[in-house]
Specification:
Largest sheet: none
Radius of gyration: 21 Å
Number of strands: 0
Number of helices: 7
Oligomer: single chain
Length: 192
């Protein structure tokens, strides 16, 4: 069962990360090309504005789902670090459980919205595609984020109460140093 979850973990992370990157690249490229077309050639791509919006929405929501994996969402551990370790662990379990429930409901309601849009046969204005296609981002991204929040519930539940706050703070510090290029390889001392 552990191998299944590790494969699922890698698959969801890759799916979220790649769709986030693809959404941002697509949105930026389309916006740039449309601006060049408008100012240099006095014409524009009529569907580019709508697709740009959808690409950025997809990129942002899948990026947020990937953020759960990386632990880069805002956490305020100052108050938790002042509490006794078992109480701090209970608060973190409650917070992650609440996040999981919220994200699971959002995924479910996104799915319900897809069904409504399919029943109504609503089409997008510029792209002329069924509206349920760009709306697929809601159940997919929120399901990925819910999976990650559920994963955090199990991580915190397994963690020793004395290490829970330290682990949360270490994730924040590690991610910040990783993004700034401050991580150093052990062998050669070269920045990553």
């Amino acid at each position: 069962m552990g191998k299944f979850f590790s494969i699922l973990d890698v698959g969801i992370a890759a799916f979220n990360r790649n769709l986030a990157v693809l959404g941002m690249i697509t949105g930026t490229t389309l916006a740039f090309v449309n601006v060049v077309m408008r100012y240099a050639f006095d014409s524009s791509i009529t569907w580019a504005g709508e697709l740009t919006n959808y690409a950025f929405i997809w990129g942002m929501l899948f990026g947020a789902a990937y953020g759960f994996k990386r632990g880069i969402h805002i956490q305020v551990t100052l108050l938790l670090s002042k509490l006794p370790a078992p109480i701090a662990k209970a608060f973190m379990l409650f917070a992650y459980s609440l996040s999981f429930i919220y994200l699971a409901f959002m995924s479910y309601f996104g799915y319900q919205l897809i069904l409504i849009l399919q029943d109504m046969n609503e089409m997008s204005i510029d792209l002329n595609i069924p509206m349920w296609i760009p709306t697929l981002v809601l159940p997919l991204a929120f399901a990925g984020a819910a999976y990650r929040a559920g994963e955090k519930v199990f991580e915190v539940a397994k963690e020793d109460a004395d290490k829970v706050i330290k682990t949360a703070e270490d994730e924040i510090i590690h991610d910040t140093s990783e993004r700034s290029g401050a991580d150093v390889q052990e062998e050669g001392g070269e920045p990553l």
